[in-house]
Amino acid sequence: CHTAIQNGFKCGTTKSSCYDGLVSAGLVTPGADASSSLLVEPGSSPLCGSLGGGMPKIGKCVSDSQLAKIEEWLAAGAQND
Length: 81
Fold this sequence. Notes:
Elements: H1 15-24, H2 64-75
C-alpha cells in the first residue's frame, strides 16, 4: 500500500518518505498554516476512524489520543522531526 499512489498520496516505507508524501499531496503544509491541514479534516484525510479515510487498510484506525498528538504536531508547525 505504501509504495503506490492512492488518491494522490504515496506514503512510502520510511518516516521521511511518508512526510514527503504528506507534503507533496498537499495534506500537510509545514509552518504557520500547518494546523489547518487536510490530514485532520474529515472527508479529505487518508486516516480512518473519525476522519473517514481508508488508511490503514489493515490494523487499527487512528484513536482520539493519536489524533490529538497529530493535531499538536500540526499546531507546532508540522516539522519533519
